[in-house]
Write a structure and sequence with these properties.
Layout (H helix, E strand, L loop, with lengths): L3 H10 L16 H4 L1 E10 L2 H6 L6 E7 L5 E9 L2 E11 L5 E4 L4 E8 L4 E8 L6 E8 L6 H10 L10 E3 L14
Antiparallel strand pairs: 1-2, 1-8, 1-9, 2-3, 3-4, 4-5, 5-6, 6-7, 7-8
């Protein structure tokens, strides 16, 4: 279990260099976008993610924006009998909906959102040893519609990923007391 926690964090953060132009949400409204989201599906070519994807469950993401426009992402991933929490800070790139994690050499793009039901994020990790890409489907409620899931699955090949790299995450249930981010 002690080895699984760092590996899970690495798997979740492991993402690919974008080869093609990634479409972005025009004029992202950060006030509408901020708040609680549930990560319900992920497609990635990250080797750590691929090893762990069948054991993963839906997670909770809390997105907020700093006064200077930077994006703060708090995540809670359920593991066995407890939750693993971590926080990431992305700097505004100067283009609405595009954020960079300078220390991790990572790009985060908001590809598409309707603000009240779903969002699709694209993350790219620019590693010399293993560049990777991930697409994430975030929803406001834990239940995802078949139509929304189908729409997400149609995006996967457009980003150079394949269906076998997809994890549709089962619901994780209630968040235990003491997670601090309920």
């Amino acid at each position: 279990m002690a080895v699984a926690l760092p590996n899970l964090a690495l798997a979740l953060l492991c993402l690919l260099r974008a080869g093609a132009q990634v479409p972005m949400q025009p004029d992202l409204d950060t006030e509408k976008f901020a708040g609680v989201w549930h990560v319900t599906a992920i497609a990635s070519n990250c080797s750590l993610f691929l090893k762990m994807k069948d054991e993963m469950k839906s997670s909770m993401a809390i997105i907020s924006f700093m006064s200077e426009g930077d994006l703060a992402l708090k995540m809670v991933w359920p593991l066995m009998d407890k939750c693993q929490k971590f926080e990431l800070l992305f700097q505004q790139s100067g283009q609405a909906g595009h954020y960079v994690g300078a220390q991790e050499k990572r790009d985060l793009l908001v590809m598409e959102t309707d603000y009240s039901h779903y969002a699709v994020l694209h993350e790219a990790q620019h590693s010399e040893t293993e560049p990777s890409v991930a697409l994430e489907l975030l929803i406001r409620e834990q239940d995802v519609s078949p139509q929304l899931l189908q729409k997400f699955m149609e995006l996967i090949p457009t980003m150079g990923l394949t269906e076998d790299m997809l994890a549709i995450l089962p619901k994780s249930g209630e968040w235990p007391e003491g997670t601090g981010w309920q």
